[in-house]
Amino acid sequence: MWRVPRPPYRRRVAVPHVLPEWxxxxxxxxxxxxxAAAAVYDGAEHxxxxxxxxxxxxxxxxxxxxxxVRRSRPVAFAAxxxxxxxxxxxxxxxxxxxxFTVASYRRPAVTAAVVAGYALVSPLTLLIRPDTVHLxxxxxxxxxxxxxxxxxxxxxxxxxRELVASLDDRAxxxxxxxxxxxAQARHLERTAIAREMHDVLAHRISLLSLQAGAxxxxxxxxxxxxxAAAGTIRRSAHQALEDLREVIGVLxxxxxxxPPERPQPGYFDLARLVDEVRGAGEPVxxxxxxTEPATIPDSVGRAAYRIVQEGLTNARxxxxxxxxxxxxxxxxxxxxxxELTNPMLHTSVVPLIPGGGTGLIGLSERVAIVGGxxxxxxxxxxxxxxxxxxxxxx
Length: 394
Description:
By secondary structure, this protein is α+β, with helices and mostly antiparallel strands. The protein has 11 helices and 5 strands, in the order αααααααααβαββαββ.
């Protein structure tokens, strides 16, 4: 269980004050000086010896000066003020200020020890200053009330200071935890962006490599064919840049003065994707048996698009020129299934572009995010990738 931290022995926690510290000390100094002057004047009125009055005034003045160091040396200040109050009546108000300071800045055990010390030395006043026997019950009661009030107020200030310290510590912990959560969110965001960049760029660059390879293998092609292939390469490169901007755009700060980002591709972009691959010369067929496709969730549709995109990219890498069959079927409540099948080559073929072997891993992660399952591997003479995605009913 979390506990409120106790301030170290000399630790001071900033607490909102009604008055600045120096101004509060000045007020206490002036009040204590006024009481000291009143005590000396009262002693003169009652015929106290001049030497005693002079000693009383000197000790009272020294006690008042201790107010300026009460925050840094509260226990020493209380000890000096207590000893002076035994001899000097003018130091009595200063001893109350000293008790208040100890209660505010030190542990309750230290405060109790100081109070016990005051209780032990107080009777010495009757022996050293027999002229104080004229104090009445009302004055003694008033002194006790002032003593209790000083201790109570000091303990309240200390409790308030500890509360502020605990709240400050809690706020710092919350801020640190928030920074940690932000850092984790940024890491997850960068991971997602890296996955998007892999899927998008691998698809586009493989199309570029396919077109460039066709031009390289047919150096004597007709100018019209070369121009058409060059146009396809240009469009693919432009689309790759657009897709890259689309993916990186998630890092941009929201700015109302900038144009909106393109929407993420979804299920209804599958036909365009397949047509694009066919236009590059790859034999791809698409079969769809989907009921109510308009109700496919955006996250599921986006995952389906990326699965087909990555599957076609892998087919171009490892079985270029071979037919790829894309089948999609499903219905609300039954889920959405995407299956890609292409023949396996028995000879070693150098991929068009190097691969890091993370494509299928990325697909598995993407499918897992939406709560689906991915199966892939050779089946007879073909390589099959099948993804089952959830499609709840509304």
